[in-house]
## 1
Amino acid sequence: MKIIFWIIFIITGLSGLMTVLTKDLFRSAIYLGITLLGSGLLYLFLGYDFIGWTQILVYVGGIVLLMIFTIMLARESVMRPLIITIRNPFISGLFALLLFLLLMLVAKPLILVPKGLDKDYTFLPSIIFKSKYVLSFEVLSVLLLIAFIGAILIARKD
Amino acid sequence: MELKSLFFLSIFLFSLGLYGVLSRRNAMGILIALELIFNSANLNFGIFSKIHANPSGVMTILFGIGITAAEIVLGFAIVILLFRLRKTSNADEVHILRG
C-alpha cells in the first residue's frame, strides 16, 4: 500500500511539472488530467472516498475533456499542433522558485499529526444532507447553472 | 509522514502553477496552470481537515471543485469567443477592453 502511495505521489508531481514545461497545449492538458487523477487517488489514501471520486469524475471526466475540446476548436490549422510561446521563463521561474523555497522554509518545522480519532468521511453525502451545508450546496448548484447558461450565451454564434 | 509529504506536494504544485501563470502567453495555457493552483489549494484543505478532524475542510473541497468548474467553463467560453473575433488566443494581443 505504501509503495502504491509513493508511485502515485511521484507520478502526480512529475506530470504537474510536465504540465507547465511542455509547449504543446494538447499534451499540457493531458498531463494536467494525469495530475488531477493522481490527486484524486491521493484523496482516497487520506480516507476521503467521496471527494476523491468526485474529483476524478468532475475534473478528469468533465473539465479536462472541455479543455481538450476547446484546444481542438481554437487553433489555426487542424493539422498543426498548438505550440505556445513562453514569455520570460527565467524571471517567472525565479519567482516560482523563490515562493517554493519560502513555503518550504515555513512548512519544514511544522508537525502534522492527525488530532484525535480519524473520522470516517465515507458517508459524506449524509453529512451534507443532514447539516448546515444544505443551503450553500443549493446556492452552488444555482451558481453552476448560471455559469453554464452564461457560457452558452457567450460562445454562441449569432 | 504521509501528511507532510502531501503538504510538500501541494506546495510544489502551487509553485508550478505560479510559474505557468507567469510564463504562458496563451489564455488557455494560463487557465490550465490556474487549475494546478486550485488543485493544490484543495489538497491543502484536505490535509488540514484531516489534522484537525473537522469536516468543514472536506466540504470546502467540494465547493471549490464546483466553483472551479464554473470558472473554467466561463473562461473557455471567453477564449472561444476571442478566437472567433481575433483569430488568436494570446492574452497579450487582446486590447478590446483597454480604455
Note: Residues 2-86 of chain B form a domain with the Helix Hairpins fold (CATH 1.10.287.3510).
## 2
Amino acid sequence: MTVVDTGARAGGAAPPPAGRRGRPRDRRRRLLGRNPSGLLFSTPYLAYVLVVFAVPLGFAVWISFHDYFFAAPGADVDRPFVGLDNYTDVLTDPDVRRSFVNIGIFLVINVPLTVVLSLVLATLLNQVVRGRVFLRVSFYVPYVTASVAVVGVWLFLFSGDGLVNEVLGPLAPDPPWLINSFWAMPSIAFFVTWKQLGFYILLYLAALQNVPRELYEAAATDGAGRLRTFRSVTVPAVRPATVLVVLLSTIIGANLFTEPYLLTGGGGPNGASASPVLIMYQRGIEQGTPGVAAAIGVVLVLLVLLVAWLQRRFVGGGES
Amino acid sequence: MQRRTRVTAAALTAAGLLAVTACGGDDDASTGGGDGGDGGRGDITIWYSNNEAEVAWGEQMVQAWNAEHPDEQIEAQEIPAGASSEEVIGAAITAGNAPCLIFNTAPVAVPDFERQGGLVSLSSFDDGDDYVAARSGDIAEQYRSANGEYFQLPWKSNPVMIFYNKEMFAAAGLDPENPPLGTYDEFLETARTLVSSGAAPKAIWPAPTSEFFQNWFDFYPLYAAETGGAALVEDGSATFADDAGRSVAEFWKSLYDEGLASRETYQGDSFADGQAAMAIVGPWAISVYGENIAWGAAPVPTSAGTAADQTYTFSDAKNIGLYTACENQATAWDVLKFATGQEQDGLLLELTGQMPMRQDLPGTYPDYFAANPAYEAFGDQAARTVEVPNIPNAVAVWQTLRDAWSQSVIFGEGDLQESLQGAADEIDGLAGQS
C-alpha cells in the first residue's frame, strides 16, 4: 500500500493497481462516480424532489385507478381497483371537458400576451435611466401581492357599475365582464397576465443584461432602426428567456385556481370560467371523490407535458 | 454515466411508487363510523365555532364543566381556520387528530365523515337514541343515517326567514308593519315597487355564486314552504322536479330576469349596506342588524300564501359530532349531554340567539321569548324546519342542483323544466350510490 501511494504521489502515472486491490475502488467509482462528494450536495434536493413531487405524483396516479377516499387512521375501508373507470368518468363529464376548453382559451390569451408585454416592457425598462427602480418595483408589486387582495380591487373595477364600465359607457358588455359567458375567461386571463407580469419582466431584464453591446452597435452601424434592432437583435438574443417564460406561464396558467374561485364566484357564469384545478378541488375535497380528482390531475399533467413539448419544439428552436 | 443515471432514477421512482402503493392499498372491508359505547374517561378536547357569541357560550360551558369534574377536564379551542369548517374537520379525521367533540358539525358533511370512519355512532351509547329523541322529538328523525343510527346530535337551528328594511319599504310607499310578502305575486309586486321607486337598488340579493351550499338560502327555504316540509331527496329520489319545484324556480327566475335580484356577487353585506331591501337570514341576524337597521321579519313566501304558523323553512342547523379519534369517549358523551341540557341550551339561546333543537322551545324558555319578542317568530319557526337530506354524496347532490339553478334560473339559459329534470335524474343516481 505504501509503495503504491508513493508512486502515485511521485508521478501520478502509475498503472492502476491490479488484481483484488483495484476492484473495490472501481466498483465504488462506478457506483458513486468520480466525485462522491457531489452526491452529498445533491442528496437534499433529490430527497426534496422525491418527497414533494415524485411521491405525491405517484400516489396521485395510484389513487386515480382506485375508488379512493380519505379515511381515519385504522378505519376499515374499501378502496377497490377500478381500472380506467375514473378516467372514463372524467372524459365523459361535460363539466370537466368544458374546464379543459376554458383553460385552453385562457392559455391562448395569457401566454402570448405575457411574452409580448413582458419583453416589450423589459426592453423599455432596460433603456430607462430616470426612475428605473420605481418602475421596476411598480411592475413587481402586483406579483407579490396576495391574489385575494387584488381580486377585490378587480371585482370593483369590472362590476356592472364599476370604473371600467363607466369609462366604456355604451361599449361596456352586457351582462358585465365577470358574469358574461364570453368575457369571463378572457377577463381572468387579463387579470393573471397583469398580476404575473412583474416576474416575467424580471426574467427578461436579466436576459437583456447578457446581450452583447456589440450586436446593438453592429446593428446601428448597418443602419437598423429601433424596431428593426428589437426584431433582429433583442428577440433572438433573449430566446432562451422566452422559452422559459412560455413554459412557466403555461405551467402556472394550467394550474389556475384562485382567480375563478374568487373572481367569478366558483367558475361562473355556468362554468364558463371553471378550470380543471377548480373542478379537482370540488370533486376531490368538497365532494369526497379523490379518485376522480386524481384522474383529472393526471390528464392535466399529460396535456401540459404535451403542450410544453410542442412549445419547446416550435419556440425553443435549437436552444437547450 | 447516462445509463447509470437512468437506472438509478428508475429504481428510485419504483421504490417511491412501491412505498406509495404500500401506504394506500391495504384494507378491503367496508366501513361506517366507529362504535363508542364503553369508551374511556379522562380529559378531552373540543372545538367550537369562532363567532364571538358562540365563543362566549363555549367558554362558560367549559368553565362550568371543568369546575365540577377535576378528573375529566375539557380543553377547548375554536375550529382552526380553513376554506370551510368541513374541510378542516375532514382533514383532521384523515390525520387522526380530530378532537372528541365538534360543536359545529354541518349535517351535509356527516355522511362523508361517517364514511371516513371519523364519527362515533351515538346510538351505540346505552341511552344514545333515547336522549336524542327526548330532547329533539320528531325533528331528530331527519338526522338519522341510512343505517338508522345517529352519528350527529341535532344541536341548534337557524330557521331562515325574510328580513326586510322598514325604512326602505316606507320610502317605497309600502306598509312597513304588514308588507305584502305572503305570495309570489305579492312578493314580486313589492319587489318591483321597491326598485322602481328608487327606495332600494335591488329588492333582494342572495349570493349568485356557484358554491354547493348557496341553494340553502334561495331555493330550499321556499321549496320547504311550498311543499309543506319536503326534503330535496326522499327515499333515494329527488323530489324537486315537480310543480312545486318549478314554481319556486320560476319565482326566482322572474326576480333575476326583471333585475330585482342581482346576478353579480356583492362584495360585503348587501342588506347592511342598503343595497338590498330584503335578505334571507336566520335569527343570528337580529344581533347583527338589530341596532343599525329598522328591520322586520316575515315567513318565506309560497305560491298561494301560507299562514305563518304553518310555514316550513330551511333549518340551517349545526350539530355536534363525537369523533373516533377521541380516547375518552364516555367523558365526551357526558359532556355532550351536559352541553345540550336544558340549562346550557337556555344559555345558548340567551348568548347567541340561535335556537336549540329541543321540543317546544317557546314553552321551555317562556321568560326569554317574553323578554326578547324579536326572537319569537324564529322560535316558533324552529318547530317547522327541513334539513339537508342525510344521504351519500350529499355535497355532489347540492352542487348538481346549484349548477342547474345557476344556468336556468340565475342566468336564464335553457329550458327551466328540462334543467330541473336533468338535475333530478343526476341526483337520483348520486343518492343511490353507497
Note: The radius of gyration of chain A is 27 Å.
## 3
Amino acid sequence: MQAVVVDHISKCYSDKVPALKSVSFAVNQGEIFGLVGPDGAGKTSLFNIMTTLLFADEGSVTLLDMDVECDYKKVRAVIGYLPGVFSLYPDLTVEENLKFFATMYKSSLTENMPIIKPIWKQLTPFKTRKAGKLSGGMKQKLALCCALIHKPEILFLDEPTTGVDPVSRKEFWDILKTIQKQKITVIVSTPYMDEATRCDRIALIQEGEIIKIDSPEKIVKGFEGSLYSIRVKRIFDTLKVMEKCPIECIFYPYGEYVHAVFYDKNEVTIPIRFADFMKDNNMEYSDMKKITPSIEDCFIELMERRKSE
Amino acid sequence: MHELTKKFGDFIAVDHITFQVKKGEIFGFLGANGAGKTTAMKMMCGLLRPSSGIATIAGYDLKTQSKQIKKRIGYMSQKFSLYNDLSVTENMQLYGTIYGVKPAALQVRIRESLKDLGMEKYADKLVGAIPLGWKQKLAFATALLHKPDIVFLDEPTSGVDPIVRREFWDRIYKTASTGVTIFVTTHYMDEAEYCERICIMSNGKVMMIGTPTQIKTDIGVDSIEAVFSKFVKR
C-alpha cells in the first residue's frame, strides 16, 4: 500500500517564483523516502503541504487514503512532524516536553514508550534539564521522541541533520533505521547528498521540480557518461586549464580529486587523449581512474545536463 | 594564537589553543558541534574577550587593539547576514559604510564586485528575492568590500547545492590569491580537502593541525572523514 501520494502539487507565494512546480511522487508503506536538494529547492513547502500546515495552489496529497485538506484532523493524528527549526518549549524540562506532546495526542509516556526507548535512554540522565539548555544533538533527539510519542504511521523529518557534524549525522541515520523497523514510514529531507544512500528511494529536487526519483543504486546505475577521478596538485588552477579540454566533458573539484565526466563515445582512448591534452598544457596529474559515481556526482551531472539542454 | 582560552563559568569552551595562520592561507577549522569552533572564531574577531592567552590578528593585539582588528577583518556568519528587505546595492552600501569605506570608493567597489559576481542584473532586487546560492556569494563579496586582511567564514556553504558550493570555493581561492587570509569552518569533509591547512578541534582543544595530506598520512587513513570520526568518537 502507498502511504503517501503526492499528485501534481504546485505552490506559488505572492509575486515570487513558483516554490513547487507540479510535483508528483508516491511513498510506499514502511519505506524511508528521501527528498534530497539544496536550500530553496521547495522541500519545506512540500513538507508543510503534506503535513496539513499549508494549502497547495493545485494538486492533491493523500496520506493513507485520506486527503490532507478534507481529512486534516484525521491526518494529523497519524503523522509525526519534526520541523526544520527547533520547536519544543525551551523553558519546560525534557520530560515535561515529552509529556506535553503525549497529552496533546491523547497518549501517555508509558503507552508508546517501547517505540522511543532506545532514544529516550540517552536522554534519561537529562530528564529534569530545561530543553533550552540541551546540546544541539540532544535537542534533536528529544524532538524526535516528541514526534514519535503518539506512535505515528508516517514520520516527517525536515532537514534533521543540517548543520550537524558528520559523526552525529551518522548516529541519527542509525536511529532512523530502528524507527523503520517499527513499520513507520519515514519521509526525510536533507541537503547532504551522501545521506541519500541511507534511504530506500530518493527524489532529487531542484528549484521546485523533481529531477529524478529512484533508489540510490538505480540512480547511480543510470549515470550518463564515464566518470573519472584525477589527482592533481593545484585543483582550482587545473580546473581553469581543463576548461579548454577538447573532449566533451564536465569537471569539478571533489575533495582532493578532480572529477571529470566524459561523454565521448570512444571511451577506450579517453585517458590517452586526456593525457595528451594535459601534457600540451604542462599540467601534472596522477591516479586517473574510472570510478562509480556518488549521488553527489549524479546530482551535479543531472543539473549540468539540464542547464545545457 | 598562544594558549588562547575561554571559560564560561566552570565550562572551558576553548582550552589553551595555539596555532599560527599565514597571510594568504586558506585555513580550515573542523570539529563536532560544540567543539568550540564558533567561540574561538568569535574571540579572534574581537567579539568575545578571552579568559587567558594571547593572540595577534593582522598584526594587532587581541586584548588591547580589538578596535583596529575589527577594521581589518571581514566576517560571514553561518546564518545569512544580509537584510532581506534591502536591495543588493543597499546591503553593500550599508556594510561598506559601517566599515568606513569612503562613498566614492564604495560606489566603485560595489560596481566592480557585482560585475565580478555576474550579479549586475540583481543590483536593485531585494535580497530576499534572490536564490540562496547568490545570497551566499553576495554575503562573501560584502564581507570583502573594505578590503580586509583576514576573512572569517563560518559554515558559508551549509545547505547550498553542490554546484554553487564549488563555485563558492572557486571564489575563496581567487580571494586568497590576492593575499587575503581565509579562515573557514565547514561540515563538508570534501571541503576540508580544499584547505591548505586544517585544524581539528574537539572539546575545546586543538587535536591536529596540518595539510590534509599530512594529517591523513599521520593517522593512517585515506579520508578526512575517517580522521574526523576518529577524533569525535564518543
Note: Chain B is about 40% helix and 25% strand.
